[in-house]
Write a structure and sequence with these properties.
Elements lengths: L18 E5 L3 E7 L14 H22 L7 E11 L8 E12 L2 E10 L2 E12 L1
Antiparallel strand pairs: 1-2, 2-4, 3-6, 4-5, 5-6
Length: 134
């Protein structure tokens, strides 16, 4: 977890990523194991707001990881738009989210990212985010 804190702007207890499994210029795979002490967990479930926060932090972790490997300063990203988020099922405590982030388009410092979230191979959520880097 401490390595993650170097590449994302969020701080405990509001951390919704715990591992960068893979990242390159076009895509990334970011993981998070849901714990009972997660601030958005309610009745052992992570609601849509928590899944969306995980997705947003996954996008931040991708950018932060790439910038850190290139010895660049970590820039803050802001979500400009969320397009049609679909939650197929609500994840529960103990499950491990894997979000695959794919760069669809990048113009200047604005990126369009497709984000698909899985649990053990099952697609549970998908959305497209527009992210602006500052």
């Amino acid at each position: 977890m401490s390595d993650i804190l170097h590449i994302i702007p969020q701080r405990p207890p509001f951390i919704f990523v715990d591992e960068v499994s893979f990242a390159d210029e076009q895509r990334a795979e970011i993981c998070y194991t849901i714990t009972e002490d997660c601030p958005l967990v309610n009745n052992h479930q992570l609601p849509l707001a928590g899944v969306l926060e995980h997705v947003a932090q996954s996008c931040a972790a991708r950018i932060g990881y790439l910038q850190s490997t290139q010895n660049e300063p970590i820039r803050i990203g802001y979500i400009g738009a969320v397009k049609k988020i679909e939650l197929k099922r609500i994840p529960i405590v103990g499950e491990r989210l894997l979000t695959k982030v794919m760069l669809l388009e990048n113009v200047l410092d604005i990126s369009l990212l497709q984000c698909d979230t899985f649990i053990e191979g099952e697609l549970i959520a998908q959305t497209t985010l527009k992210l602006a880097l500052m």
